[in-house]
Amino acid sequence: MKLMGALSSLPMTITRHSLLLASCPSSVGNICCILLVLLVFAVSGTGCQIPAPEDTARTADRPGDAGSSGAMARDTTITDALGREVTLNIPVMGLAPLAPSVTEMIALVSGTGAMVGATDADTWPPGADHLPRYQVLPVDFEKLAELEPDLVLASTQVNSPRDARALEALGIPVVFLGGSDLDDVLLGLQLIGDVTGRKHRARVVVDSLLQRLHELTDLTQGVDVRPQAVFLISTGTPWSFGPESYMHDVMAWAGLESITRSFPNEAPVLSDEFILERAPEVIVGPFDTDTDARQALLEAHPLWRNVPAVRDDRIVRVPADLVLRPGPRMIEGAWIMARRAHPQLFRETP
After folding, report:
1. % residues pLDDT > 70 (the chain)
2. In the chain, what are the helix, strand and coil shares in percent, each to the nearest 5?
């Protein structure tokens, strides 16, 4: 299946979004706060139905693929998400991710054994727990150099091009993967398959993700009137997502209409006036399971008492590490969002 052909066949349109965290100067302060929140949220995993992480590593998946016993290694030049040309000796054996979403992609395609380490913000997969950890904000270049990776994989969502220059000065090649939306995730999975000699496995993962998304959007097409909804990163300061965020796609897959899709700022802190005027019917967020989210919202925002979502207690919690990073598991985040927002659609669904 060709990637763009598969994408164009989806019931919901998947568009390429610009990066949430690369925003206009007026929202720089908000963006810095949100970036830290996205990286430090650590929550328990869910019963993810995408393919399990691979338990094989550093080997090609089919005879004739690069890295198999019958194939010779070769120099290949690739163009990454920043338009940089990087020449690599394919297949690459030891990978170092610089963002949790990249760790997830490597694990699904090539296994955690293909990694020399993991970031200090990684929460999935469990198989990465044994790996050495290193800091990514800012990057601990000394620790990375000690691990001697053959390739560092970075994300345009989290990492700076300056990091690439510093690592390349140490003789470590760096490839940036897009970090904006599902399109970027699928392209990143395929690139990882290309550079590690796991092309077939990457195709399996991509096809499984697309099938899982088809199944969900087929269900949520049955929602006659999509509830107006808002995603809040916390019950306190009402950070949300601006117009070019992947989050609006995730909410759309779940059968919700995001009220911040046309918001003028990329990383908004929503005012009471905005919430009262738009009156969301559903509030979604990575709220703490140990607290009453409705009560926490009322304590922080007493004027929201008559907002439909608060009044009717239609507050949907989704695990942070499924939705606060544009990675392969955000489709499972959309499934959880849909089940909790539209339980009537799932009464006969396993």
Report:
1. 79
2. 40, 15, 45
